[in-house]
Design goal:
Layout: H1 13-16, H2 38-59, H3 67-81, H4 90-102, H5 112-135, H6 137-147, H7 164-168, H8 181-194, H9 216-222, H10 240-245, H11 268-285, H12 289-297, H13 331-354, H14 360-381, H15 387-408, H16 416-440
Helix pairs in contact: 3-13, 3-14, 5-6, 5-8, 6-11, 13-14, 14-15, 15-16
Length: 451
């Protein structure tokens, strides 16, 4: 049965999709290839809402985010999307395969009933995906990235894992029994996009909708490391699943954010792999094959002789306010990193826009450069000794590539923007080159210092 929609909503779909304010008829697609990539389209709105959050917080006398934490979170968001430039997402590829081989009921792709069924089904699947990502250690190794920020703001929403999709794709597959891939592709995107706006302390409550929807209040609890917050409120768009399955917790005492044991670094790669390193060390020291399997498949707090999810008394008691990890750079250096991160983000957007016209090798080269850049920013924030050398090499590589493309590919005309970027990278190369010379002239330093 096809239920037509007699009204439409104003504004770009990608923006309204952040709040799931979309109608079935405007997101009907027969082929999965026709479904837009809504996340890259929504990226400009992420930044607009971040600015709005910043202004509201400043008016209230609060600073909602720190530059080092915010850039680390946004860098993780960029990193998590880079594999999509090289190959189709595993959750989509596996879903199509299961639908093609095991589809039992063929539902119409242009039916509102199919659309709403997928909305509910995808959200239920996400609840269990999310819950298992907290209760199964090898899945937590990926998901902990999202919880590693000690701040809670809209940048935190973007702190995503590079590896999360590779440990959770199977939870979507039951929908393939009846839901067409194009309908699934719409909802799997909007289910995640909806969760962006709930990462804020600006909104305290949305009234009666708190009983049905996942909201900033509910999700603040989920991100807390207070004892009452652990393993609560897994819902994506709807909070009803937590109420049904006994994992709901209302917001109480002031929430302290972050991991039970924080990573204390801005290094993006370390944030991504730190828990895998912990798992490997634990596997090495744990005796017996059964116990080794338990290390992987039971909760991150499990140890021999303890319950599946660990002993709650092992969770440290915390009360706000707490001292946060905050290895500050001078303001000029933080603004330098922010400016270069903005350039990389612009390049990331352009890469998605023109990927279809690029060769695989060119796309891979750009992806590698973005990863090196994001890693360099984190190392600078951490004051790591080799950070200036990596940043010097990164900026020099850009200048060299620009000169090569100009001299040897026949590209002789540049826009004003590209010329400005070239001179900014030349300046940056000189800046960090001088810093490297200064450091090489000093012995015994284990970290770099800038004035």
């Amino acid at each position: 049965m096809n239920v037509s929609q007699s009204f439409s909503l104003p504004g770009p779909i990608a923006f309204r999709g952040l709040f799931y304010l979309i109608t079935p008829s405007e997101t009907f697609f027969e082929r999965i290839e026709d479904v837009p990539m809504y996340t890259p389209q929504a990226t400009p709105f992420f930044f607009i809402l971040m600015i709005v959050e910043l202004l509201i917080s400043l008016l209230k006398g609060k600073v909602p985010f720190r530059i080092n934490d915010g850039i680390t979170s946004m860098s993780a968001g960029v990193l998590s999307q880079l594999p999509l430039l090289l190959f189709r997402a595993i959750e989509v590829a596996s879903y199509i395969w299961v639908y093609d081989h095991f589809n039992l009921i063929t539902l119409p792709w242009d039916s509102a009933w199919t659309w709403w069924l997928c909305f509910v089904g995808a959200d239920l699947a996400y609840y269990w995906l999310h819950r298992m990502s907290h209760e199964v250690n090898f899945m937590w190794a990926a998901h902990q990235v999202h919880h590693s920020s000690e701040d809670y703001n809209l940048t935190t929403a973007l702190r995503q894992s590079l590896l999360q999709r590779y440990s959770s794709w199977m939870f979507w597959l039951p929908l393939a029994i009846c839901i067409p891939p194009s309908v699934f592709m719409v909802h799997v995107q909007f289910n995640i996009l909806y969760q962006f706006w709930i990462h804020t302390e600006v909104i305290k409550s949305i009234g009666p909708l708190e009983y049905i929807l996942n909201t900033p209040s509910h999700h603040r609890v989920h991100h807390g490391r207070n004892r009452y917050c652990i393993d609560k409120n897994y819902g994506g768009t709807l909070i009803i699943w937590d109420r049904l399955f006994g994992t709901f917790q209302a917001e109480g005492e002031e929430v302290v954010y972050g991991l039970v044991h924080n990573v204390n670094t801005w290094d993006l790669i370390v944030v991504q792999i730190c828990h895998w390193q912990h798992i490997l060390r634990t596997l090495w020291t744990t005796e017996g094959i059964v116990n080794k399997l338990c290390v992987l498949f039971k909760g991150p707090g499990w140890a021999p002789g303890k319950p599946r999810l660990g002993d709650p008394s092992d969770i440290p008691k915390v009360e706000a306010p707490v001292q946060k990890y905050d290895n500050n750079l001078p303001l000029w250096c933080s603004l330098y990193v922010l400016s270069h991160f903005s350039i990389i983000t612009f390049g990331y957007q352009e890469l998605f826009a023109y990927r279809s016209s690029m060769s695989a090798s060119s796309a891979l080269l750009f992806v590698f450069y973005i990863i090196i850049s994001l890693t360099s920013f984190g190392m600078l924030f951490d004051h790591k000794y080799h950070a200036p050398f990596l940043e010097f090499a990164r900026c020099l590589a850009y200048v060299a590539a620009d000169i090569y493309l100009t001299q040897y590919t026949g590209i002789h005309s540049k826009s004003t923007l590209l010329l400005v970027l070239l001179w900014y990278f030349i300046f940056s190369t000189c800046l960090w080159g001088l810093q490297c010379i200064r450091m090489l002239g000093q012995s015994g330093e284990k970290s770099f210092k800038v004035q």
